[in-house]
Amino acid sequence: MSQNSKVKTTESSPPAPSKARRSLPILDPSGDYYYWWLNTMVFPVMYNLVIVVCRACFPDLQRSYLVAWFVLDYTSDLLYLLDIVVRFHTGFLDQGILVVDKGKICSRYVRTWSFFLDLVSLLPTDVAYVRLGPHTPTLRLNRFLRAPRLFEAFDRTETRTAYPNAFRIAKLMLYIFVVIHWNSCLYFALSRFLGFGRDAWVYPDPARPGFERLRRQYLYSFYFSTLILTTVGDTPLPAREEEYLFMVGDFLLAVMGFATIMGSMSSVIYNMNTADAAFYPDHALVKKYMKLHRVNRRLERRVIDWYQHLQINKKMTNEVAILQHLPERLRAEVAVSVHLSTLSRVQIFQNCEASLLEELVLKLQPQTYSPGEYVCRKGDIGREMYIIREGLLAVVADDGVTQYAVLGAGLYFGEISIINIKGNMSGNRRTANIKSLGYSDLFCLSKEDLREVLSEYPQAQAIMEEKGREILLKMNKLDVNAEAAEIALQEATEARLRGLDQQLDDLQTKFARLLAELESSALKIAYRIERLEWQTREWPMPEEVAEADDEGEPGEGTSQEGEGRAGLEGPPGPQ
């Protein structure tokens, strides 16, 4: 009985959760963990690409640090193996959705060419050390097949770094170093094969003082390869066929490398110029325009200083064009993260809906004013309001010298002129002169943009108009009587509109009734016509009546006619 109870208890207990599933989650290929793992894989791949070739061509290097090489070799192999495990736990996108099912991920990875290369790169070729000896690092050349992970890591870093052009140049220099490194190793191996010191082209005899050192061997080979691949010249002439073939191959490689370098550098320079043109306006066209029209030197100097200020301080005036390729929602989020704090400082926009502020942020236009430049003058028509982002502006008298007040970062002006407030005594005219004391960065919000946004938010529009009235009351710029008159006129107009709407509804109702009566009369007429048609079909035709009179006898005809009349008159009534 005890054994049976133990069996039942074991069967009824739920299975324990797998620890492997908890410790190895599915990685997002666009996430941070996967990105940092790719950067980790750069080190073992670069180790095999650089060090293995060097150990194979420089025997002294292999023999001097044998234990260290074994440790590094099998550490890189362990990382290669872990990389395969990571591949089996990296999701992929299907219909734009990340697939996290391990079965689908494994089946998809196994069918790819990358899985075959990963397996071949981990083949235990080191087993041949038993027969060939531990000083044959060429057995590990299959580790080169993991190079695609290096390129993938570089591509991800290029898209994430804040300095992609500098990274492209660094990557190009790394490729050049690897090519020269491989070429120098092949040069030393070819010199050893042909014999050191046999002619002036090969590496000198190590028996000569100084040339037996490992560092001298590598540096001499690297220098010789650099001279060849850069086509500088000043190299000894080859004397053997193998040397000629090596030089020809290096010259062809140098031509390809030169074309690659020139193309890459041209691309980097073009990208930098394109980025500058997108961020900052082109001043060359403006300078040429002023030169053609002979603008005075003082004004030309102000324009040049304005452009110089933008480039030196990295200020942009065309943010809309820069962000135009982003989706609308993502563009709004970027603009909100950059400018929402500035817009929320404006008193008239405080306590408004977040969606309204997001819409307004997309409408902000950055502007930069030079020292002494007027932002607006008294009496100008106000078509926009301004928010000070950086700099100082002064409210000055008509003489341009006397200052009444100084406005700093976070303040605003001109907001009343873009909101239609009833009773506004100043109308849409500017009431003061605003002049920039230094270089000032402002945000401009036009009246049309604000009206377009507020058309979708009537409640917010009412709140903003109320705040505007409060500001005008404090400034004694609100005519209460005129406001009441405008409100009364608006109410009367609305009443007339409601009356017209009611009359229009009545006319529509009467017209609908007339249409209904007309349709009813038409139906009745159609029914009567159809009934008459059916009745006329039962009447005999005139030709048939004439034939019947000619063929029949007179007595019979008289009797038939009498019967017919009797039939038409109907049955006799009861006697």
Automatic annotation (TrEMBL):
Pfam families: CLZ, cNMP_binding, Ion_trans. One of its GO terms (cellular component) is non-motile cilium membrane. The keyword Transport applies. Keywords: cAMP, cAMP-binding, Cell membrane, Cell projection, Coiled coil, Ion channel, Ion transport, Ligand-gated ion channel, Membrane, Nucleotide-binding, Olfaction, Sensory transduction, Transmembrane, Transmembrane helix, Transport. The chain crosses the membrane at residues 34-58, 172-190, 218-237, 244-265. Residues 1-11 have a biased composition (Polar residues). Residues 348-454 form the Cyclic nucleotide-binding domain. PROSITE patterns: CNMP_BINDING_1, CNMP_BINDING_2, CNMP_BINDING_3. One of its GO terms (biological process) is sensory perception of smell. Belongs to the cyclic nucleotide-gated cation channel (TC 1.A.1.5) family. CNGA4 subfamily. PANTHER family: CYCLIC NUCLEOTIDE-GATED CATION CHANNEL ALPHA-4, CYCLIC NUCLEOTIDE-GATED CATION CHANNEL SUBUNIT A. This is Cyclic nucleotide-gated channel alpha-4. It comes from Catagonus wagneri.
